[in-house]
Structure formats: structure tokens, C-alpha cells
Design brief:
By secondary structure, the chain is an alpha+beta fold. The chain has 2 domains: about 90 residues; about 60 residues, bsu07140 like domains (CRO Repressor). The chain is about 55% helix and about 10% strand.
Length: about 170
């Protein structure tokens, strides 16, 4: 239970070192997008990469070559998904959620908060974090595809073109 054989421990050390180096190389080759803030598909790939790495480390039935192939496959799938979502509108709609306005023109959209499962406290925290103290001075608070909250003050809204593609947004005034 505590110790079976020295060879088993050495296999974990060797496989772990090789898998770690392979994972770092695969992630570096796949580009910055793989390590960006996570949307739902990115999260799935991240969890799958971690599970695959753990399997390589702890399952003697999985060869290092098989494990590296699995890591490369998962990263390649993420790369393809990133290309599809950045170049094909239907692909983006399938793989990522659209950003949603939670506050527009200083008014909190209670329906949007409920639909997105965001509390008013979270919205107020984002507004405070942006250096503002009054919701009425905010042009928009947007729940982004990666789950972060973006705050745009009225004096920063300009023509509002940054809000293109945001659900439930009103034209800025």
C-alpha cells in the first residue's frame, strides 16, 4: 500500500517528467489562445488535459507515446475550435456564449441578472472595482463570454461600437 516497488516510483518520475515537457511544448506550439481566459470549450479541454496528464503519470498501461498523442490531440481540437469560432459565425455561436448586458444606461436589468445567474452584489463589486461609485454613471456592465464583467462608464462609451454583438444592450445615450 505505501510502497510496492522502486521501479513503479521511477516510472512515475520518468513518465511525469516526459509528459510535463511534452505538455509544455504542445501548449507553446498551440499559441496564446490555448492559455487565454476560459470559455466553456476551453474549460473542457483544460480539464481533459489535466486528466490525461494524471493518467499518463499513474496508469502504467498507458505508454508515454500514447499519452503525448492524447495531449496533442486535445490541443489540436482546441486549436481547430478556436479557428472555427474566430472565423465562422455559426461556429462561434456553437462554441461560445454571447456577452450579455447586465446594466445599460445606469439601469440594472433584473431579468438579465436572473437569466445569467449573477447577483446585483457582483455587478456593484465590478462597478466599484472600476473606480465608480454610482450605477447611474455607468453606460454598460457586460457579462463577457469568459464570465468576467466589463464596466463602461458613460464618459467612456463613445459611439458604443464596442457593444456590438452584446445581448440585451440598449443604444447608449
Amino acid at each position: 500500500m505505501w510502497f510496492d516497488a522502486f521501479s513503479d516510483v521511477m516510472r512515475v518520475v520518468a513518465a511525469g517528467a516526459a509528459a510535463y515537457v511534452a505538455l509544455v511544448l504542445v501548449l507553446r506550439l498551440s499559441g496564446k489562445r490555448t492559455l487565454a481566459k476560459l470559455n466553456a470549450f476551453d474549460l473542457v479541454i483544460t480539464v481533459a488535459l489535466g486528466s490525461t496528464l494524471a493518467t499518463i503519470l499513474l496508469n502504467a498501461d498507458v505508454s508515454i507515446a500514447e499519452g503525448v498523442a492524447a495531449l496533442a490531440l486535445l490541443t489540436a481540437l482546441q486549436f481547430v475550435a478556436a479557428i472555427v469560432s474566430s472565423r465562422i459565425k455559426a461556429g462561434r455561436a456553437l462554441l461560445t456564449s454571447r456577452p450579455t448586458a447586465l446594466v445599460t444606461n445606469g439601469r440594472v436589468d433584473e431579468h438579465a441578472l436572473r437569466a445569467q445567474r449573477v447577483s446585483p452584489d457582483e455587478v456593484r463589486q465590478a462597478i466599484r472595482s472600476s473606480g465608480h461609485g454610482d450605477v447611474r454613471t455607468i453606460a454598460a456592465v457586460v457579462l463577457e463570454s469568459d464570465g468576467s464583467l466589463s464596466v463602461i462608464a458613460r464618459e467612456q462609451i463613445g459611439d458604443g461600437s464596442a457593444l456590438a454583438g452584446v445581448d440585451r444592450v440598449e443604444t447608449p445615450r
